[in-house]
Amino acid sequence: MSHDATSFFLSWLFNPRRVGAVAPSGNALAELITREITPSSGPIIELGAGTGVFTYKLLQKGIRQQDLTIVEYGSEFVQILQLRFPGARVLWMDAARLGTVKLADDGSVGAVVSGLPLLTMSPRKVLSIVSGAFRYVRPNGAFYQFTYGPRAPIPRPILDRLGLKATLVGRTMSNLPPASVYRLVRRAPSRLSAPRSGAIEDQSQLDDFGLRPRLVDTPTVLEPG
């Protein structure tokens, strides 16, 4: 077992809900999730980079390290990422705090690439991550998310709440386990005029879904040296 695979397995063993996989993503999944990325996509935010499998692929696509902001919550991975990508900005923080920390100018980011295990997270946390990320995404930008599940990992009420749509980019059977990638983008304005079936229309629906707004403390962002 490689060093990266060992690190991933041990991290999963101690905290399976946070890591979400027993091994790093494979090359086929990395190629799929970065398929639509070009040098003009930068700057880019990567969430849950782990050992940097997607990061390496982003660099191969022509993204400069200085155009990468990497958000990683696992302290065991942060130093690995800093050593491997010294030109990138590596932040040790919870992605759920994206909306409360100034990472970049609003609307300046071309793409968000996420390796986070959204299926293991609460709807409230998924809402915080996706809404916080789209704060930075420019109008024609996209959020790319992979999943091991059979459908998009972002619940429909959250998509409706944020005015987003999820489209399947593709699936790969070569990854272990097999995985799919979805692209999230803002809906066209004309489609916002009439709420779709299942849209969250009042606070009681938010309460039922476990998404009642609450106050959060101002976070501390750590940038390990």
Detailed description of the structure:
The protein has helices spanning 3-14, 16-19, 27-33, 53-60, 75-84, 123-134, 156-162, 203-208; strands at residues 44-47, 68-72, 89-92, 109-114, 137-147, 164-172, 179-186. With 225 residues, the protein is of the alpha/beta class. The longest helix has 12 residues, at 3-14.
- How many runs of DSSP E, i.e. beta strands? 7
**Strand content of the residues, in percent?**
15-25%
From the helix content, strand content and strand pairing, which structural class follows? alpha/beta
Indicate the low-confidence ranges by residue numbers: 18-23, 192-206, 213-221
Treating each run of at least 4 consecutive H or I residues as one helix, how many helices? 8
Instruction: Note the quaternary state here.
Output: single chain
Shape annotation = globular
Give the rounded overall mean pLDDT. Answer: 82
Radius of gyration: 17 Å
Strand order of the largest sheet: 3-2-1-4-5-7-6
Terminal CA distance: 29 Å
What is the percent of helical residues? 25-40%
| Major sheet | 7 strands, mixed
